Amino acid sequence: MIKFTVKILVFFISLSFVSIANATLITNLTQVELDTHDYTNAEDKLVDSLLGVNYINYKGYDWAWVSPVNVEYYTNTFTNTLYAPELQKNWQFADSALLNILKTELTLADFTNGNDIIQAAQFFNSDFDYVDSTEFDTASSEWIAQNDPLVLFLNTAETFYVRPSKVPEPTTLMIFSLGLIALVSRKKLSS
Questions:
Q1: Under 8 Å between Cβ of 56 and 127
Q2: Residue 98 CA: distances (Å) to CA of 92, 106, 123, 162
Q3: Which of 48, 135, 138, 185 has the lowest tally of Cβ within 10 angstroms?
Q4: Using one digit for the tens of pLDDT, what is the confidence trace for 49-108?
Q5: Domain limits of the chain?
């Protein structure tokens, strides 16, 4: 219990010394759509070229480390809104089976690219543009209820969202396969 109390105190003290600049939320939605939680026009800004920079792929899912808190509205020395995964099209909360994979099979090393942490905070937060790598083992997906009396102590769990990985279209696979067959056939004919 003392260790937990010290950890909480260190967290709050460190926040008081950190100057936080507003992050730039990466989304195509308007402020009105954000305020009303209308994600019907949301586009997925986490494109393929950001794999290994803002998200990873594992066991048929893309995994995004999205926030150093798991409460929708966070207020301490500043205010942050953690938006729902639907803010980026096709993203979702991890169910218990996926969260179990995250906690038992994935490690901090999987979310590291050289000296950089692979994270997508700027795609889902109004003010956070970072995650806390020292808290990786506190992974969560669902938010803590805002009215939960323990929200002040439990809101530091790191938040992860997932989406099914994109599978190549059958036509693309067929064209690739035909090209490969043609290449092998040509090589055999020339031998």
A1: no
A2: 11, 11, 21, 8
A3: 48
A4: 999 999 999 999 999 999 887 777 777 666 888 899 999 999 999 888 998 999 999 999
A5: 23-190
